[in-house]
Input
Amino acid sequence: SPEGIRSGSRGEQGGSGSIEPVASQYDHSKAVTMKRVDLGEGLTYPHWEEDQKGILRSLTDKRVFLLFSGGKDSSLALDFMLRASREFGFAFEAHAGAYPVHRYDEAARKEIDAYWNGRGMGIIWHELGETDEQIEKSVNPCVECQKMRRKVLQAVLAERVDDWERLVIVVSYSLWDLVSYAVEHLLGDLFTHLEKGIGPGGRFRETAQRFYPLLTMKEGYSVYRPLIKCNGQDILDMVRQTGIPVLSTPCRFKGFRPKRILESYYEKMGLRFEYGALFDFARKSLSLPDPGSYTSICKEEYLLRVF
Output
């Protein structure tokens, strides 16, 4: 059978197994047609687990780092991964960068910490700065914030990770994010005179990688996106039903992010999207880059400039 992720750190209970082929080895038509579990309306943990179990079974011998922000997407990812860790028998860590500072007041952090500690999951917080002054002065605060986060992530991984072949980084992009990246590419690249596109340094070169649920890089570590088949409204509904506390202070700079503007539109219009249809469109009409164009990048370059 095709090689997938194997072996790693031991979890609480459960089993082991192999994974479906990693993205660098995918038949790309298969990447979206593999198992059509409906993760749109009525998102539930059992539906998600059924769709993701090939990957989840492979995590028993891995060093899993989940990147947590306290927002709805990463909160649901943490909830699902925590349930899965007990079912499939893998351990993982949740790391959070408390930035921009104005979103992470002491009361909010205490509430979030208390909730997850109560479920046996401690959050590892990393301070990126004492004020937001550094990004407030920039032309695009979101770009500067992302640069800071990447630098801190690279430093944390360099300090904590000895065996890169066992590392799995879990990030919480949603299907709404992917739709917004496609719209952003259409409006900002293809339908304007600006020469950004998918070439070196282009915005779509960065965002297109997030269309793949799993990328296994040349050093052996993997990037896993467990929520990219889930619509944003369904994620929010699930978080509310579960009673998970999330950050209540909106980011002052979210207007600089096209996907946050578009997200409001999807919400107001009650839109739901389908991952397979979007992936097919991106591949055929947007020239979605092959996963090999990402998996071949060295970790220093990828984590600092692309991730």
Remarks:
- The longest helix spans residues 141-160.
- Residues 182 and 286 are 8 Å apart (CA to CA).
